[in-house]
Amino acid sequence: MAQDPSAVGKRLKELSGLNYRVSGSFKKYLPYALNPDEKILAVTTGMLDDEAWNLAVTDKRLLLIRKPLFSKPILKAISFQQVGVVGCEKAPILKSDLLLVLCENETLHFSSVVFGHTRKIFAIIEEALSSFRANGGGYPDLPDEIIFGCPDDDDDDDRDEPSENSPRSEWYSDWKERLNFFLGRRPSQKEERYYRDLFGGDNECRFNLTMYLSRIKAGPICVHAPPDDYYRVRYEVLHQTGAVLSGVDINPKDRLTTVSMEQLRALASQLKLVRHRAKADLIAALKECSEADLEAVWPITGMDPDDLFLFDNYLLRTN
């Protein structure tokens, strides 16, 4: 039971219109939760029982994945065979709608963190469920909740703290000091290993953490790094581990801070907005537009979304 991670990653990019800040761990573990013949129809992030979950809708079931910090990921796999009724409850103003999924033994209450996404997901589930039933499809019953791992999950990690005479001891001591500063406390051994991997492994972690801290000192930031940028390789390492976002995974509204005043004016002109003299005011006006509209006119900036990287502590909290 698995699909090629690169093929799944490509499919997630195709679904960028419904893909909003799904965590790096979701992209990492989703391929191993899929059956070979399943097709991903939609993905989103939301709340289920007051906890953050990533939801994938396939043509045969719903997959909910959550990765608690310092624990293995949790998968809730719900076959359409187990689903009775699906509904969408309209929420009060400024609140997200509620997706209701009535199953054999439980009722799920899920709401996307992105305004409007719950209703889109509901429509996609309804259509997929109808098609599933019309074709007489069946799927083996699955447990409501299972714990699973993927090939690089190994509880028998033997990368213990190096001895004083070890060649690693000098960099390791420096790394621990930087990590203590970042966390504001001394981490457990398991936490230290987690962050060491997140920031690129033994040879890169201390440099990448220092670079990361310098970027986020004033809060979340999106940076532009074309292929010839000195830091591009480091950014790509952090993107692969899930510490930063890149490309179409970045909300177009979060990309606006990387754009010049001239490019902002071009975007505003395409969207027929009133021009503002101050850059902050122009960005605020553009953020009032829908993500889809901004994405549609983004090419006018001449900036490839794959050259943009978003640094945000939110990502570290959800990986």
Radius of gyration (CA) equals 22 Å
Strand order of the largest sheet: 5-6-7-1-2-3-4-8
**Biggest pleated-sheet summary:** 8 strands, antiparallel
Helix content: 25-40%
Q: What is the number of E strands?
A: 11
Q: Summarize model confidence as the mean pLDDT.
A: 78
> Uncertain regions: pLDDT < 50 for 5+ in a row?
139-159, 163-167
Strand content: 15-25%
List the helices and strands and how they pair.
Elements: H1 5-14, H2 24-33, E1 40-48, E2 51-58, E3 61-66, E4 74-79, E5 83-89, E6 98-103, E7 107-112, H3 117-134, E8 146-147, H4 169-183, H5 189-198, H6 205-216, E9 221-224, H7 232-241, E10 244-246, H8 252-255, H9 261-270, H10 279-287, H11 291-297, E11 308-311, H12 313-318
Antiparallel strand pairs: 1-2, 1-7, 2-3, 3-4, 4-8, 5-6, 6-7, 9-11, 10-11
Features:
12 helices; alpha+beta; eight-stranded antiparallel β-sheet; 38% helix; 19% strand; three-stranded antiparallel β-sheet; 319 residues
Explain the overall architecture.
- The protein has twelve helices and eleven strands.
- With 319 residues, the chain is of the alpha+beta class.
- A hairpin with a 7-residue loop joins strand 3 and strand 4.
Summarize it:
With 319 residues, the protein is an alpha+beta fold. The chain is 38% helix and 19% strand.
